[in-house]
Amino acid sequence: MTGGGGGVTSDTYRIGATADTFRIAEGHLGDEPTVTVSAPDGAVRAVLALRGATLLSWQVGSGAAGQPTELTELTDGYRDEAELRSQDGVRAGLLAPFPNRVADGRYHHDGREHDLLPGRAGDRTIYHGFAREAPFRLVAATMTPDSARLLLRSTTVRPGRYPGYPFALDLEVEYTIGRRDLGIEIRATNVGETTAPYAAGWHPYFTLSRPIDDMVLRIPAHTLIRTDASLIPLPGTEALLPLDRCPDMDFRTPRRLGTAVIDACFADLAPGPGGRTETVLSDPVTGAELRVWQYGGYLHVFTGDTLARDRRASIALEPVEVLTDAFNRPELAAALSLEPGRRREFRFGVVYLPSTH
Questions:
Q1: What is the pLDDT of residues 106-139, one digit of tens each?
Q2: Is residue 175 part of a domain?
Q3: Which of 58, 59, 112, 182 is the most buried (most CB within 10 A)?
């Protein structure tokens, strides 16, 4: 079977499904193992690579439940094995144990300096942690007529495995895929003997099938994180710029993206009911919307201007627990510290509201 995962093939094996429930099929993207989730009426299809527990494709139909409908691709993920392995653009990467950049590849923790790029001179930029390339395995799945829940686990973050990160973490990622929504919870448990610095995030690219210049964006944030030329936040409170003083980046009132070039972090997100914050991407022509939600944290936005392919064809709306270079911010040391035996969760996801026209 082929489809929106970019060359994904799936065999006929089904894991614990019945005729009226969501189904899960094992398959491959080249040599990379995948799982494909589909609704019993074919109106939902999601493909995950086990490498990084990475979402490759999320397709949803716009018709009523039980009605045949054409699927709409809502993410701009890796299209083939080569892209997945190259990690260019970090498409839908799960970001742990740190999101975004660590300045100069070095940080201090518990009185010691750690080097994430030992021996490297010149460009010492490091991005987005290790989880996005780690092998995960599917350890549990639950299917109902309206959703599928998948639990994936990795135990590869161990001392000596990743330079500059001598800590032991078990990572779990739980996907809940419904008819028009997708939820993710990433969990880390410190299984080592020392406190570990840790934070998580997600780096998805979203599309509503038209250029992002035509899209309307709403971000319920009150503060912009100011950075230097290397996109590293300024120290302390210098990093905090009220959006009242930066109207060009203020999306609290929905407005068209146009030619805006954005690679920035937004803070002080205003929560809605139940503490859930929603960032909304909408198509003013069709009325279709994507609502990216999260509990706590920050939102990083990237308009894809430097991608290797399809620049500005999609937009990255990235829920993250902390701002860039958090490992080097003393004021965040306590929030980052994950003590032995303790677990931390970060929840986020997206809801699709189809065209109203």
A1: 999 999 999 999 999 888 889 999 999 999 999 9
A2: yes
A3: 58
